[in-house]
Amino acid sequence: MLEKMEILHVEKVIEEFETMTKDTENVQRETLKKILEENGSAEYLQNLGLNGRTDPQSFKACVPVVTHQVLDPYIQRIVDGASSPILTGKPITTISLSSGTTQGRPKFVPFNDELMETTLQIFRTSYAFRNREFPVKNGKALQFIYSSKQSRTKGGLFAGTATTNVFRNSQFKKAMKAMQSQCCSPDEVIFGPDFRQSLYCHLLCGLIFREEIQLVSSTFAHSIVHAFRTLEQVWEELCVDIREGILTSRITFPSVRSAMAKLLKPNPELADLIRRKISGLSNWYGLIPELFPNVKYIYGIMTGSMEHYLKKLRHYAGDVPLISADYGSSEGWIGANINPNVPTESTTYAVLPNIGYFEFIPLKENVEEQVHDRGDANILSMEPKPVSLTEVKIGEEYEVIVTSFAGLYRYRLGDVVKVMGFHNSTPELKFICRRNLMLTVNIDKNTEKDLQQAVEEAAKLIAEEKQEVIDFSSHVDMWTDPGHYVIFWEISGEVSDEVLKECCNCLDRSFVDAGYVSSRKVNAIGPLELRILRRGTFQKVLDHYLGLGAAVSQFKTPRCVGPTNYKVLQILCDNVVKTYFSTAF
């Protein structure tokens, strides 16, 4: 389809989406049938006794709800080169690595052509709705995308991060062309072996093509903020390169140098213009529209753990709209953002009923009530029965279960979502949090969302001093008696001890979970500890993950560092410069 298409027919894509979502129940039934027909010969399904049945009732009766732990041995055999159909009918040739920031180590997840096609369908759908509100002309996109190396597994399969597998797929570039969203940087920059050198060149390409840039994007908001924080440091060097037409010696890889040499010509007028534009800014406010005057919007995942970066991103963006990208994971996609003009914090995702078969575990009590022992098979029978895509109720929270075209069956994604409404008959979901990211010492249960809200509240105190929390994480310290919460902050500059003590107390008071408050009052949980980190500590955490083979595009700062993630914990603890204990209780 994409080979013949020059430019995506936006109205046709929207029309197809509208038709499909008016018949969600039937589309879901047909999608499950297709998944089970294509993969009926797979050992995993054969062993469960489906015997060729493809209806939802038989599927749910025979196939158990599972975590990654259960499928891991099957995936491992595929990784090791087993040639028989194990999870899918057709052989898996590529493996995706999850970011690894949740558990401290990446997971292996199957990746195939069908998953690539669902990726492009999500991209096309959200682009169609976005382009109706914010039309882009046939310009270029400043995309901060980075591809880590694809390696080979023991069994000879290609392995890379999910974003790497997408960017390296031949269909990706064709799709971007059809969506008039081609990256302004050459492939050598995207696939460069060193992300710092690639980032510098992305910025340089953006400035060279500044008039043509229609949108700025990356996988996550974190990467966009990181890019413009870097520009604050290197803009003068970028101006020298543009003025002289010669690339800085900091770029050492021959393939990247030679690709950039084709774009770089001496341009003193442009260098002077950029210098004037930047010199006229007040504290970098509105940097993006000042440098890229034709930018229509800024695009990337901005919900969940990315919400922390929105304040800084809005500062750089000025009045340019921020639009959150779609909802998915290394395991596959779920929904598209079809309401691009709502405030980023209110973003919802309409589920595409033909890209997988979806079920939802109702979380009637608090999300957190069912967290413990989630790996224990017995707990599943005690949980409410999963409901189908069309049975979810507005205002309720659920854990997502996915059955994909890439060999995952009734797979617990670990995400908690809230149903905010319906688009025709498909639900619109708001991402709430990861279910297993928890701070808990006693009877307290605080989610990633609770942590984020506490940090936002306390950060207001340093904002009065014109400083900001660059990034943050947390840890439950059970070595002390009683155990207590530790919050790590990296801040932008000097803040007085007085203010930081008050920040520590504010953090402690901002966890309003009843179990936490009552435990603190009787000292069953010790005083919260705020640890201030050296500047650049979270860069070291990022470097650690890059060293494990993660891609910058997929990096998410770990918000809660558990005992198994001891390397990251060590980086954080080794870079503490000040410590404060709460006196709030």
From TrEMBL:
Domain of life: Eukaryota
The entry's keywords: Ligase
A single GO cellular-component term on record: cytoplasm
Location of the GH3 middle domain: 349-434
Molecular function per GO: acid-amino acid ligase activity
Location of the GH3 C-terminal domain: 449-561
InterPro entries for this protein: GH3 (IPR004993), GH3_C (IPR055378), GH3_M (IPR055377)
Family note: Belongs to the IAA-amido conjugating enzyme family.
PANTHER family named in the record: GH3 DOMAIN-CONTAINING PROTEIN, JASMONOYL--L-AMINO ACID SYNTHETASE JAR1
UniProt name for this protein: Jasmonic acid-amido synthetase JAR1-like
